[in-house]
User: Fold this.
Amino acid sequence: MAHQKHSTDRVRIVDVARASGFSTSTVSIVLNEAALSQYVAAATKEHIRTIAARLGYRPDASARSLRSRRSHTIGIMVSDISDPFCTLILEGIEKTLYPTTYLPIIMIAHNQSKQFGRHLEMLMERRVEGLILVANWLFGEFDQLSELEKAHIPTIAVGRDLTARRVYSVQVDNVAGGYAAAKHLYDLGHREIAVLRGPSELSDSDRRWLGIQRFAAEAGLSLAAERVEQLTAAIEPTAGFDEGFRLTTQMIERGVRFTAVLAFDDLTGLGVIRALRQAGRRVPEDCSVIGFDDVPHATMNTPGLTTIRQPMEEMGSLAARWVLDALDKKLEAKKSAGSTDSEPDAEMPSASLGTLHLLPAELVIRESTAPLRA
Assistant:
């Protein structure tokens, strides 16, 4: 009796060659999509791939990586995966990488600089071909970023401006967002507007504050110091909510007059609403509140939170596409130069090093803001 191949045995290239009637080398060239496959007849390639699919052949990614000296992996460093800001950006990255041959490797830094550094070293040890940094909170200065440049690993930061470190960065236009938030409250008749700025360590906070000040100067709006507070730096994902609650409660206890609150982000805004309710103030009848980001909690809250939307999924998708484009361009350059080394050794195009790409901010009006009542 002929030996039956056990169903759990891995189908090899030699098995596909035997079933298709072509040599092992020809089958290997076709299934591995080697450069020589362009010289193989289309009908032959189709026949080999049909047989391979029928037998259940799957390429050995590890073996292929050893042969090509490529990992086909994209590293994704996330500051805090429990933060809805990061989650939406990840969706955009994953949707873009899904149809490709690149495998995303997600590492979570939990807003810890030491953990960020260690994870970055691990990603480099595994020879990731590109890196996307999803940072929305506090990242310090990292020596490893210079090592990424030396290793020619295309790196993009989403949600934080790292252009000073020669890292291509994509953010929402925070200045325009702050301007739009202040204008919305002003157009509703509010003049006594409290502003809760983000932590001083975040450039986002300075840029949103710049937008607010720019509108105030144009409109002749006074931003009284007693109505301007700043969140303290913290690494907990709920820190914004807690700070919004604390700062609003303190202003109420001090007797500060305000008819509207412009919060640094949505979680801060939700903390503001909680504090107002506990103080017996209705939103928006007694006080309007506006946030920033447009995370899912904003629309699920009662009342729905008016906010400045960041196109977070689009930001993630753009970052992934730019990394893929950088890798494709480097591979094409190697092919044109006749290089036999198939490792991409990719880097971002020189024109994009240190470039900050800004996406438009969008005002989303919900039930937490309303015209000033007489």
Observations:
- The first strand starts at residue 73 and ends at 78.
